[in-house]
């Protein structure tokens, strides 16, 4: 359910195949899980193996995502767990922590709005917008780009991006893209860094000055 929630929040198609790839299991395994969730009124399924959360399912998914992201923030801020390790640790803890303890964690952290990767933390009740923004690999050369969040699916990629200084809140300038499938070049605090498409696609944010604005 959490994977469906996050995939749909990025505006990507949620299908049996996409879930199998994200969860690193087989498609039949996903189908079995979905049948169970459907029987409990948590998901609906449609043509082309499409899947979506029901209102009931979305409420449950938001609750789990809130737990996960609050725990990631606690692990980094309080225990100084590196940002490339907090995701795996929170996966273990998210189903064990009580709502009472989670409320205390939230208050101790002064009710943070986002986790270490920039993912917005859903409120205890009410609406929630994932708001992924633009991907860095689609930004035109010459633009100035603020990093808002980084997809946390790859620990090694997170470590590398942190080494380059590409973390939520940082501002970079896209300087050029090399031809014939070459890397995207960005300038960070006067340093030029090359990013392949796989790495640049993990970085999401906001264009704060476009090429048109600059001209």
What do these coordinates show?
The chain has helices at residues 2-9, 16-23, 27-39, 55-77, 86-93, 99-108, 155-164, 197-200, 211-214, and strands spanning 43-45, 51-53, 134-135, 144-150, 171-177, 184-188, 191-195, 203-209. It is globular, with a radius of gyration of 19 Å. The protein is 41% helix and 18% strand. The model has no long low-confidence stretch (mean pLDDT 93). Strand 6 (184-188) and strand 7 (191-195) form a beta hairpin. By secondary structure, the chain is α+β, with helices and mostly antiparallel strands. The strands form 2 sheets. Strands 3-8-4-5-6-7 form a 6-stranded antiparallel β-sheet. Strands 1-2 form a two-stranded antiparallel sheet. Helix 4 (55-77) crosses helix 5 (86-93). Among the domains are: 2-53, Arc Repressor Mutant, subunit A; 134-214, SH3 type barrels, CATH 2.30.30.90. It contains 9 helices and 8 strands.
